[in-house]
Design brief:
The protein is an alpha/beta fold. The protein folds into 2 domains: 225 residues, Rossmann fold; 157 residues, Rossmann fold (3-Layer(aba) Sandwich), CATH 3.40.50.720. It is built from 17 helices and 16 strands. An 8-stranded parallel β-sheet has the order 1-4-3-2-5-6-7-16, sandwiched between helices. It has an 8-stranded mixed β-sheet with strand order 10-9-8-11-12-15-14-13, with helices on both faces. The N terminus is likely disordered. Bound molecules: nicotinamide-adenine-dinucleotide (NAD). The site of nicotinamide-adenine-dinucleotide has 28 residues, from α7, α8 and α9.
Length: 424
């Protein structure tokens, strides 16, 4: 179907639309900042005539972003940023409401990429990307779209790393805004969102009790900090693994045990990777693990756990025990349990981040789309930070929505902070 512009959706079942609408409305209650932006977009129409492709997890929060973009005047096409993260009822609701939607939970790799290309048939001016798969597809296969592109916005750490690598190699063909790096995004979404929803995914998939278990968290970045903090809150003993000495030190001083993965492998009951890196759990770690150890990933790609290796050393093919729970049996009878095929477990087995935190991430996305529409002619082929006034505005709106007021600098304090003469 790729290349056909008359195809407006490819989803599981349009009959799920009503259920999707109800869940989208429920999420909207927790997204007051996006609601305010939507109201201002309805008045000012900053995206009039702008075509946007959003390649993000197709969740209730994403639907609220899509309605906001439409309120601003945009035409939007939506595809999934992960083959297992789509909520089929949400995809149905969006399709029924006239969006182009190409996403089916559990789609294979070929379908995943075909869906990206079908979304790209909209000939976007802006791409909202989550992991840079669309930006990469445009640079590789759809270069005819480059002249029409104002730029892209990037939702996640892994995508920003890929964009910076493209910039470094001198191949980035349009401006990109690193939405992930906004403080109102990664301080909250990556930490509190991933922290809570990763445990939610593990619990929904397995229904295990965390209290008394040993949880090994690989990576003490924004996501890892959130996962470690929440696992400890549920009564688990938490071990952190790191390669960065500063982050490792932070974990030690936050009260966690820190050690290499191969040592932690002997102790852990549950392993969660959140590094953005490859093969963080590998052969020697599987071999060191206890019988029945559970491994899951919260990082963007399914590359963090070396499942090809696990498959190689397994003596019996994997067996599905429950949805998203598969067991591998090694030599000697040891069992290793893998959740969600090593894909981001919070989106595979749970519903992704709670709406309240996506409110800020997607507020940044919506405002950055308006910024690109307005300012693109002044931008170069570089990776840009989210403008500081957008970041501050999102925080201000969120505080207001939460009913929290803060102090303001007095003129005396402003002067003091600008001066250097006064000391003790
Ligand atoms: N599941 C989700 O919903 C979700 C949400 C946000 C981000 N992410 C993804 O999660 C990943 C981590 O994001 P982040 O914002 O925490 O990134 P980050 O850069 O803040 O943290 C990653 C950490 O992993 C460490 N690390 C790298 N290689 C390692 C290794 N081999 N062993 C141990 N530690 C290692 C790094 O030193 C760093 O401290 C990325 O892939 C990101 O795209 C997922």
């Amino acid at each position: 179907m790729a290349g056909r512009t008359d195809v407006t959706y490819d989803i599981r079942d349009i009959g799920l639309a009503e259920a999707g609408r109800r869940r989208i409305a429920w999420a909207a209650r927790e997204m007051p900042v996006l609601r305010l932006i939507r109201e201002s977009f309805e008045r000012d129409r900053p995206l009039d005539g702008v075509r946007i492709v959003a390649c993000v997890h197709v969740t209730t929060e994403t639907a609220n972003l899509a309605y906001t973009l439409r309120a601003g005047g945009a035409e939007a096409a939506i595809c999934a940023s992960n083959p297992l993260s789509t909520q089929d009822d949400v995809a149905a609701a969006l399709a029924a409401d006239g969006f182009r939607v190409f996403a089916i939970k559990g789609e294979d790799n070929d379908t995943y990429y075909r869906h990206i290309h079908q979304a790209l048939d909209l000939k976007p001016n802006i791409v909202i990307d989550d992991g840079a798969d669309v930006v990469t597809a445009i640079h590789r296969d759809r270069r005819e779209l480059i002249p029409g592109l104002y730029g892209s916005t990037e939702e996640t750490t892994t995508g920003v790393i890929r964009l910076r690598a493209m910039e470094q190699d001198g191949v980035l063909a349009f401006p990109a805004i690193a939405v992930n790096d906004a403080e109102t995004k990664h301080f909250f979404d990556n930490r509190y969102g991933t922290g809570q929803s990763t445990l939610d995914g593990i619990i929904r998939a397995t229904n295990i009790l965390l209290a008394g278990k040993t949880v090994v968290v690989a990576g003490y970045g924004w996501c890892g900090k959130g996962i470690a903090m929440r696992a400890r809150g549920m009564g688990a003993t938490v071990i952190v693994t790191e390669i960065n000495p500063v982050r490792a030190l932070e974990a030690v001083m936050d009260g966690f045990r820190v050690m290499p993965m191969v040592e932690a492998a002997r102790l852990g009951d549950i392993f969660v990777t959140a590094t953005g890196n490859i093969n963080v759990i590998d052969r020697e770690d599987f071999e060191a693990m206890k019988d029945g150890a559970i491994v899951a990933n919260a990082g963007h790609f399914n590359a963090e756990i070396n499942l090809t290796m696990l498959d190689d050393i397994a003596v019996e093919g994997r067996e599905e025990l429950r949805p998203f729970v598969e067991e591998y049996r090694l030599q000697g009878g040891k069992r290793i349990v893998v959740l969600g095929e090593g894909r981001l477990i919070n989106l595979v087995a749970a519903e992704g981040h709670p709406a309240s935190v996506m409110d800020m991430s997607f507020a940044n996305q919506a405002l950055c789309c308006a910024y690109l529409a307005r300012e693109h002619s002044k931008l170069e082929k570089r990776v840009y930070a989210v403008p500081a006034d957008i970041d501050a505005e999102v925080a201000r709106l969120k505080l207001t929505a939460m009913g929290v007021t803060i102090d303001r600098l007095t003129p005396e304090q402003e002067k003091y902070l600008r001066s250097w003469q006064s000391g003790t």
